[in-house]
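Thread: Modeling a multi-component assembly for a lab meeting

Hi all, long-time lurker, first post. My supervisor asked me to bring a structural picture of a complex we are working on to next week's group meeting, and I have zero experience with this. I have the sequence lines for every component (643 residues in total). Could someone generate the structure of the whole assembly? Inputs are pasted exactly as I received them:
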Amino acid sequence: MDDDDQVKGQEETFHGGFRQSMAWLHTWAGLVLSLLLYFVFITGSFGYFNTEITHWMQPEMPHLQAELNVAEQSQAALDHLQRVAPDASRYLVRFPSERANGAIRVFANLKTPDAKGARNLNQLIDPDTGSPIEARSTGGGNALYRMHYALHYIPYQAAVYTVGVATLFMLLAIFTGIVTHKKILADFFTLRVGKGQRSWLDAHNMSSVLALPFMLMITYSGLVFYTFQYSPGVAVLSLGAEQETFRTLNRYLYPRIENPQATGDAAQMVPVAGPLETAQALWPDARLRFLQINHPGDAAATLSIGRWPEGIARRGEILYFDAVSGELHERMPAQPPSSVFASATMSLHEGHFADYYLRWLYFLSGLLGAAMIATGSLLWAKKRRNQYRGRPPRSIRFVERANLGTIVGLPLGCAAYFWANRLLPVGLDERAAWELHCLFVVWALSFMHAGARELRCAWREQVGLLAGLFMALPLLNALTTDVHLGVTLGQGDWVRAGFDLSALVFGVALLFVRRRLPAPEPRSQPIIAMDSLPSPKIGG
Amino acid sequence: MGRRDGANVATSYRWQVAARCLLALVGGVLWVSACGAVISLSLARLGWMSMPEGVHIMTLASFIGWCALGMWIFYAPSLRRVTGLLLGSGGALCILLVVLHTA
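Re: Modeling a multi-component assembly
Sure thing. I ran the full set together rather than chain by chain. Output:
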């Protein structure tokens, strides 16, 4: 960019009135990490249906509708664990939530690695038969959910800090966006279609205002998850920088019962029916979440029973028993008020308490957040492009293509992830990892395609492909599994049927979007002729 | 505007942006941390709440505080004034911190 252009750029500086300064800050705080934030919003939105996506991605999983008899099924699960992992330091039985398919998940921490070198056993068992269910290896919805804060291919801590910085910038962009707005209510209802840059601004304003409370909540609560990592300063200056200080602080804020050490003396454990009866007497209407035994078979064995949290509480209550005598030892200690607030904030972020209607609202609000970021990035590029009569500078063209490669490329990658789940061989080594490789390979191809083709043409092709991939997903499912719409609708398996139907609806909606995209520009002159046009004289 | 004048203004503008970014990212974080630590230590000294809880509340508030400070840093017309106020008040906060720790 030459100096004259830079001078012109100063029309949008932070020098000026309050609104002008804040508009400048809003643009840059939002833009700098916008594509990363788009990734976070898209993958995070999928996270609201992680259990349902996993259920669809494991077609071998039966559609179980058995009523849960907790006492019988817990004992059956524990018997199974004692059979397959007799030498374990911990057993955990997780009861299904209302969203899951009815299977019970069992874990065991092995004292010595098994034949494959694994230190943990993790199985799903049929609650009726007590036998393990063999399902294909997949990342499922949890892999998408995890990526929204831990990214992929980079170390966990680096990813968490990168996402944290992006989230802080987003919070700043939201605050400055609010103070920049003069007419929040009018923006709620304004969308002028087909007016170029104005339309993008309307779309950006509308998506922002429509989901503003959600954006504020989701952004701030995202920071609360890693409070002391993102903002360690107050704790360091008040209490010191030692690791132990932070551990003590966390133990104070989120108190828990410490498990006693194993004694090494063998002891017979009580049947779990007794403690379960006590739990059900104390929580008559509660749905149990888990049953855990530490040091099974040892004289110091403890048994804890947890329930699903009520309302927006994040932690459900836990009862601690002596696993040998069956006596109730302690209930979970209370949290101090600040951590109750933090837990409620995190719970609002995760939305575990939400029923299906609210879950859909979360999902759609997440997509609106992604739309807000996408329209903001497109608006920025469009505005810069309009400043040039001929071919815009390389930086603007790069941003335009990066926008396409991310805004459409990432959903294309997600669609490829679902396709890979059905097309990769079931017995493939590291199958779950390969599903994710497919996501990133297709995303990279989308970037390459965006760089190689004329921009409008590339938009139409990629959106068309995305629509096709989503629309064909139920068909692919029907061709590769026996849990297609014809079966799932008949069985009342609404989780799998819902996934197929949603894919179909998204595909049709994207087809409609594709029809609205502008036609490719006719290439009357070769590009080299456009390059030879004199540079625009701006602000001279 | 001549080409040379334009270049000078552009360079000055770039330095202004860089300096304010640095002030917001480094100065802002340090200032908000010091301010939060002073408040949490004061609350603990007054016996209004325990130290860990005060630290937690001020850390939770620090994200909002940093945004507000960042907005002010980019709004204030004079960079010199912003730097002076941040350094001055930051110094005062450091002295208060030392006093609260040693008292």
